[in-house]
Mechanosensitive ion channel family protein (Chryseotalea sanaruensis), 289 residues
Amino acid sequence: MNFASYFETVKNNLINWLSDDGLKVLGIAIAAFIIIKVVNKVIKKSLRVMLAVRREAESLGEVKRQQTLERIMMGVATVSISTIALLMVLQQMGLDIGPILAGAGIVGLAVGFGGQYLIRDIITGLFIVLENQYRIGDVVNLDDTGGLVEDITLRMTTLRDLNGTVHHVPHGDIKRVANLSKTFSRVNMNIGVSYSADLDQVVTVINRVGNELALDEAWSEKIITPPQFLRVDDFGDSSIVIKIVGETQPIKQWEVSGEFRKRIKAAFDKAGIEIPFPQRVIHQATVAE
C-alpha cells in the first residue's frame, strides 16, 4: 500500500468517524458547555436571593461571602459536569470506562484516608461561610486566637492581631467562635469614683458627656447609642464602680471608648469628681514603755 492510498484510507475512516461518533462527541461537549453555563447562572441568582445582597447596601464582607460561595459551588458543578461528559466521550470512543471508575474509586479511598483532616477543614469552612458566622473585616476570637479577619478560604481563616501578627487557623481546629463586630459593637466599661462623690452628679456628668460625644460630627456616625450610666456595679476597696454601656458601629467600640475616657476625665476634673487610686490605711501600734 503506497502512501497515497494509506492517506486516503485514514481520511475516509476519519470522515466516517466524524460523521457518526464525532457528531455525538461534539454534541456531548456542547451540551456539557451549555449545562455548565446554565447551572452557574442558576447558582449566582439563587445565592443572590438567598443571601439578600442589596446593591444599595452591600458591604465588602457580604460581597466577599457571596463570591466565595459562588466560586465553591460553581467549581464543584463545573468539575462534576465535566467529569461526567469526559466519561461519556471515552465511552463513545469505544473505551471501557469500568476499570477507570474502579481505579478512581481506589484513588479516592486512598485520598480519603490520607486527607481526612483536609476534608474536615473544608467541610467546617463550608458551614462557616454558609452560616455567616463571620466575614472578612470582622474581629473575632477563634478559641484562644483573636484578631481581624483578613481572609477566609475553605480550609482556613487568616487573622491579624493588634500586634500585627498573622495567624492561620485551620477550620477543623476551631471549637468556639466569638464575633466581636457582627451587626453592632458595644462600649462596656467600668469607672471608679470616690465614696465621697455625689452619685446623682456623677450620673448627670456621665450621661452629658456621652450625649455630647454622640452629637459630635466627628463621632456621630460611629455611635448608635451614646455611652450612658447603667448601674452601680460594685463597691470596691477604694471606689464605687460605675457601669457604662453604649452601642457603636462594628469595630468602633475601642475608638469610642478611648475618646469617652478622655472626655470623662476632663469632665470629672472640672466637676471636682475624684477618680481614686487604690489606697491602704496603715495603723501603727504604739508600744508602752
